[in-house]
Specification:
Elements: E1 5-10, H1 12-17, E2 18-28, H2 34-39, E3 43-44, E4 49-53, E5 56-60, E6 63-64, E7 81-84, H3 87-100, E8 103-112, E9 115-125, H4 128-153
Antiparallel strand pairs: 1-8, 2-7, 2-9, 3-6, 4-5, 5-7, 8-9
Length: about 160
Amino acid sequence: MSGDIKIIAKNKRARHDYHVVDTVEAGVVLRGTEVKSVRLGKVQLVDSFARIEDDEVFVHSMHISPYEQGNRFNVEPRRRRKLLLHRSEIRRLHRQVREKGVTLIPLAVYLKGGRVKLEIGLCRGKRAYDKRRTIAERDAARDMERVMRRRARGEET
């Protein structure tokens, strides 16, 4: 992600629970005052997932809070929302989801050039021992960084 991108929300849990095999950027079809809520950062990706239905991709359970100054134009916060992808991308994703046993998980919502985009990950579930290994690697990296900082300052351990 580069330049004129403003990250609104990230799904940190997804990278903990899944191995991300591939990522795809998709536009999101929003209604009414949802864009204003997104711009204010009122988005949650926890427990959300994407599904291919009738050659279209939809994101389910993505929570966009109703706009506070909105009125009758506010819509259901957890409704399913259509994602905008090229037909060839949808076919490729559908083929991979069917064959490889992977799932589509939203990883991030961001603004790119004034438009709301969703980063979808083609993900495979992690086993419990994979999660423990990831945590151990992160702790080891943190310890190494701490030691390097101490050495840079001239302290001895």
